[in-house]
From TrEMBL:
<dbReference type="GO" id="GO:0007059">
    <property type="term" value="P:chromosome segregation"/>
</dbReference>
<dbReference type="InterPro" id="IPR050336">
    <property type="entry name" value="Chromosome_partition/occlusion"/>
</dbReference>
<comment type="similarity">
    <text>Belongs to the ParB family.</text>
</comment>
<dbReference type="GO" id="GO:0005694">
    <property type="term" value="C:chromosome"/>
</dbReference>
<dbReference type="InterPro" id="IPR036086">
    <property type="entry name" value="ParB/Sulfiredoxin_sf"/>
</dbReference>
<dbReference type="Pfam" id="PF17762">
    <property type="entry name" value="HTH_ParB"/>
</dbReference>
<dbReference type="InterPro" id="IPR041468">
    <property type="entry name" value="HTH_ParB/Spo0J"/>
</dbReference>
<feature type="domain" description="ParB-like N-terminal">
    <location>
        <begin position="9"/>
        <end position="105"/>
    </location>
</feature>
<feature type="region of interest" description="Disordered">
    <location>
        <begin position="618"/>
        <end position="657"/>
    </location>
</feature>
<protein>
    <recommendedName>
        <fullName>Uncharacterized protein YubM</fullName>
    </recommendedName>
</protein>
<keyword id="KW-0614">Plasmid</keyword>
<dbReference type="Pfam" id="PF02195">
    <property type="entry name" value="ParB_N"/>
</dbReference>
<dbReference type="InterPro" id="IPR003115">
    <property type="entry name" value="ParB_N"/>
</dbReference>
């Protein structure tokens, strides 16, 4: 060992200072320093200090900080003189941290914050987790975990050093890689806690509330390769070495894989259409209005198959009649081979039972049961059957189909997040209406305890930009979010100094600034994200009324692309979108394509005509013609500054700034 080989030297006590590489940052208890000083005065210094040379010529004490404090106390009280010789061993700078950590761990268990800082320094010197572990006697896994904690925000590590939180809190916070978000989560957890005692589970839930474990069957089926490293939140502190992934992202990847399987079966077996779904089609309830599940036709085996099945049945009886304990492994393997061949023959005959004529009017659906893939063949679309019924009554009103039936829940959540950001940005342009809507919301609470009007305001105020940008396909790069951020930065610069601690500072703000702040906060409170309820029913949008009130047009803020929409739709729905947009030829072409090609095909045609899905706009907005060909980027004033004769374009993205 390098430390064992170092020669003992003596240096004056005045030449010693605490080294910046000493990992001990928590102050020593005064009584322990005094006790050490008394011992040194009585019997002398029994153990050397470990030092390294500093640029100013003095010796930095890397190990032996408490002894140094005791010596300095003795000198300050004139119990030893300035020339008192202290026994030391000198080491190179690169060994100083390791020596400091090793001694401190032996003498007095290091505080976790000190251990984290020490590991960080050693890693910055180029040492790997394995090398650090070998040097200090720790397992590689422990070192990796502590190095993960070095990525926490400085405020978090400071709270750990003050014992305001524990390493368990830090481990939970380490699930979030964004340091700003880490601090926000800790503050939120503190507000939710009782007596300011933060729960570890509360922190973990705040970070992973919209995520699922990577240890589940669904993730294993989809596979880690379906996600980028940034999409998987690795939990180094999990006993199962797992992690988390966004539930919506996992469902999207699962749908894509199921759709690929469905398309393969359609081509291989000759079905008219195919579909990939998160849930199997049910024989009951709402599904019966959309699909009809046919029973598997009677299975008929060929003469050759029947003969082979008889042979296999005889072999099965023979193997099962073998004496137990005699060649058990061989018998088990033979039985397995028999059963596998029986299943193959039955499987082949079952597929053959579906005739080409049956397949022309039916499809195959591939779904997920929760544990495994389920294939449903011979599925008939009720709409197709109704069209073929020649004796159907022509004057009977057609059954209204909810557009949301064709939208997966993950896609619904993603695009309703994008829509919410766009409505927020548009409302910023009309501060008078924003404030009026805020007052209306509060009056509903003050003058009436309940209201039947559906609206999206959360005047608490609850701001969900982090979740919205995480879900929205365009995220923080969207036109709407950029407009919101621009206005936020402008208003933040107008806030009085020390405003967070002194509410009276807002008395100095003029009316125009207060109006702008009220409008901004009101707009940011909007939450129109859609998902599903406990019964699996998809939420209707709460944004329609607000959109109509401010003449909002989503087409001015967002346009569909293969990446943000069409690649997440099923092929029949892509074809349907093109058809409903009046592009019959393009729809027919898309029906013959692979899903990926059809998605790019749809983007090419639909992006030119300002098309948006009907479920992403209010009913009134659907009636308005989409005359513009591209996103409008012209500038305009907001409604507080417009002249009486001017007409303000309230849907213009550039107005939000």
């Amino acid at each position: 060992m390098a430390l064992d080989a170092a020669q003992v030297e003596y240096v004056p006590v005045t030449a010693l200072v605490k080294s910046p590489l000493n990992v001990r940052t928590i102050p020593y208890p005064a009584e322990k320093v005094c006790s050490m000083a008394d011992s040194i005065e009585a019997i002398g210094l029994l153990q050397n200090l470990v030092v390294h040379n500093l640029p100013d010529g003095r010796c930095g004490v890397a190990a032996g900080g408490r002894r140094l404090k005791a010596l300095q106390l003795l000198q300050s009280e004139n119990r030893i003189d300035a020339g008192y010789q202290v026994m030391v061993k000198k080491v190179p700078d690169e060994l100083a941290v390791a020596a400091s950590m090793a001694e401190n761990e032996q003498q007095m268990a290091m505080h976790p914050s000190e251990q984290i800082a020490g590991f960080r320094t050693l890693a910055e010197q180029g040492k790997t987790p394995a090398q650090i572990g070998d040097l200090l006697g720790f397992g590689t896994r422990h070192v990796q975990r502590m190095l993960k904690l070095t990525e926490l925000a400085p405020e978090i590590l400071a709270a750990l050093a003050k014992d305001e939180i524990t390493t368990e809190h830090c481990q939970a916070l380490a699930l979030e890689s964004d340091q700003k978000r880490q601090v926000e989560v800790l503050e939120s957890a503190r507000k939710r806690s009782w007596n300011n005692e933060v729960s570890v589970s509360s922190i973990r839930n705040l970070i992973t509330s919209e995520e699922v474990s990577t240890n589940g069957d669904k993730f294993r089926f989809v596979g880690e390769a379906a996600f980028s490293p940034d999409e998987i939140r690795v939990d180094l502190f999990s006993s199962e070495n797992g992690g988390y992934v966004k539930s919506a992202s996992l469902d999207t990847a699962l749908l894509e894989k199921l759709q690929n399987i469905a398309e393969h079966l359609r081509e291989a077996e000759g079905w008219s259409w195919c579909d990939g779904r998160l849930d199997p089609i049910s024989h009951y309830g709402k599904d019966t209005k959309i699909w009809r599940l046919q029973s598997v036709p009677p299975i008929e085996y060929s003469e050759t198959e029947s003969e082979r099945l008889a042979e296999l049945e005889a072999l099965e009886a023979k193997y099962e009649g073998e004496n137990p304990g005699v060649n058990d492994d061989v018998v088990a393997g033979a039985l397995e081979a028999v059963w596998e061949e029986q299943q193959t023959i039955a499987h082949r005959a079952k597929h053959r039972a579906w005739t080409d004529e049956m397949k022309q009017s039916a499809g195959v659906v591939v779904s997920w049961t929760g544990q495994e893939v389920k294939v449903q063949r011979g599925v008939v679309l009720c709409a197709d059957e109704k069209m073929e019924e020649k004796d159907a009554s022509t004057d009977q009103a057609p059954e209204k189909v909810d557009p949301l039936d064709a939208v997966s829940v993950p896609l619904l959540t993603r695009l309703s997040s994008e829509r919410t950001l766009a409505v927020q940005a548009a409302l910023l342009q009309q501060p008078q209406k924003a404030v009026a809507l805020m007052v209306w919301k509060m009056c509903n609470s003050v003058f009436h305890t309940t209201t039947s009007v559906k609206e999206p305001f959360c005047i608490s105020v609850s701001v969900s930009h982090y979740a919205l940008t995480r879900e929205a396909p365009d995220g923080e790069n969207s036109v709407a979010f950029q407009a919101i951020q621009s206005e936020k930065e402008r208003l933040e610069a107008l806030l009085p100094e020390n405003w967070r601690k002194d509410m009276t500072t807002f008395f100095t703000l003029d009316g125009a600034t207060l109006m702008a702040l009220m409008a901004f906060c009101t707009a940011c409170s909007i939450d129109g994200v859609q998902g599903k309820d406990e019964f699996g029913r998809k939420h209707q949008s709460s944004l329609d009324g607000v959109e109509n009130a401010i003449q909002f047009d989503l087409r001015d803020w967002w346009k569909p692309t293969a990446d943000n929409l069409f690649s997440h739709m099923k092929l029949p729905h892509i074809v349907q979108a093109l058809s409903q947009a009046g592009l019959a030829g393009a729809a027919q072409d898309a029906a013959k394509m692979k899903k990926k090609d059809a998605a790019e095909h749809a983007e090419h045609f639909l992006s030119k005509i300002r098309w948006v899905p009907e479920w992403m706009t209010s009913a009134d907005n659907q009636k308005q013609p989409a005359a513009k060909s591209e996103l409008s980027l012209a500038t305009s004033q907001n409604d507080t500054d417009a002249d009486a004769g001017d007409v303000t374009d309230h849907n213009n993205p550039a107005c939000a700034a």
